[in-house]
């Protein structure tokens, strides 16, 4: 495949900054952000990957350039990122291996694709959940899901549990002043997670990595500040809202105790 032979050439076009205005080295299909590198590490070798919400297409193109996957679909709902992904694939001569499709969510996946892994990264957890929910018909149940929500992890984990997905791996990482979570799941029959496990992540609660603990120390300070702002607010905050934050503070205090 001629695209593989040209792995080391320099990128031709000017590259757009990665999500959230990440600073530092120029990020592109050769130099992924640490966030996307960690996502890449969870894509099984030889996978047929559907990267939904691919934007510039850096993840599937980087993986293909490394010979780590055999085929990919880059799905985009918006025209500008769709065109950006087309350009990245074209610049790397990978049109024969990566299909770029303008489609809403999992509708980018066609029956003949034989997709074995799906990545949904850099979107809110609720958005990822909604894409999975409305795209259920496109899932065979055999795919590994590699999810990198920007917030909204709890509702996403709830969807996974309610749809028979077991969480196989989780990680927290910090890059450019943001905490990112990665959740890897496969459909493996019924599994029950407690409310706290859905909130913190069942595996992260056990592993208690330094990045995870620092994230929750930071969250605790934010939520305590919110509670004290509620207390001093001119207009009464609905009791339900106060109780919800107070419960989260209790859970985080128990976690960190
Ligand atoms: C912030 S970018 C993340 C890009 C890349 N996945 C990453 O993590 O660096 C989110 C992308 O998801 C796309 N997107 C949002 N909702 C989508 C949907 N329902 N279907 C396909 N793409 C979607 C947006 O157009 C945008 O390009």
Describe the structure.
By secondary structure, this protein is of the alpha/beta class. The protein is built from ten helices and seven strands. β2 (69-76), α4 and β3 form a beta-alpha-beta unit. The longest helix is centred in the C-terminal third of the chain and has 23 residues, at 210-232. The model is unreliable at 1-22 (pLDDT under 50). The structure holds S-adenosylmethionine (SAM). The site of S-adenosylmethionine (SAM) has 19 residues, from β2, β4 and α5.
Summarize the entry for a quick read:
The protein has 257 residues and is α/β, with parallel strands linked by helices.
Topology diagram in text:
Layout: H1 2-5, H2 34-41, E1 47-52, H3 58-65, E2 69-76, H4 79-91, E3 98-102, E4 117-123, H5 125-134, E5 144-149, H6 153-162, E6 165-175, E7 178-187, H7 195-200, H8 202-207, H9 210-232, H10 239-256
Parallel strand pairs: 1-2, 1-4, 2-3, 4-5
Antiparallel strand pairs: 5-7, 6-7
The protein binds S-adenosylmethionine (SAM).
S-adenosylmethionine binds at residues 18-19, 36, 52-55, 75-78, 81, 104-105, 121-123, 127, 131.
